[in-house]
Amino acid sequence: MTVPYEFMMTAHLFLHTDNYQPHELKAAVAEKSEWIERVQRQFDEVLRTRSVTVDWYADHANELFDDEETLYRYLNEVYDYVFRDGPWPVTES
Questions:
Q1: How far is CA 42 from CA 9, 26, 88, in A?
Q2: Nearest to residue 48, comparing CAs of 22, 67, 13, 72?
Q3: How far apart are the first and last CA of the chain?
Q4: Given a cut of 80, is residue 91 above it in pLDDT?
């Protein structure tokens, strides 16, 4: 299964451990741009299809998770923070 491009770039630019800045992604949501709409659609797709693996995420965001359940719990937290005003996402690794 292929990971959508915009999601891949979002993980690398905003969620990578070297530049972890989900608050900047959240700020971009307020602008309601075409780009952020694509990011949200692709984030929805990733959460629905579970196309991101633990290994893929480690390679693209430099964050290690023990299993896919932990990874997807975290990705849901990121989604809730960025798109739904949820609390700050917390990694468990």
A1: 11, 15, 21
A2: 72
A3: 25
A4: no
Question: Does residue 30 sit in helix, strand or coil?
Answer: coil
| Interval 61-73 mean pLDDT | 94
In 3-state terms, the chain is what percent helix, strand and coil (to 5)? 70, 0, 30
Q: Please, are residues 14 and 25 in contact by the beta-carbon 8 Å criterion?
A: yes
d(CA 66, CA 48): 20
- Distance (Å, rounded) from C-alpha 24 to C-alpha 79? 13
Instruction: Summarize pLDDT for 17-48 with one digit per residue, the tens.
Output: 888 989 998 998 888 889 999 999 999 999 99
| The pair of three-digit structure tokens given for residue 83, joined into one six-digit string | 């798109």
Q: Can you say how many angstroms the Cα of residue 62 is from the centroid of all Cα atoms in its chain? A: 12
Say how far apart CA 21 and CA 26 lie, in whole Å. 9
**pLDDT single digits (tens) 69-85:** 999 999 999 999 999 98
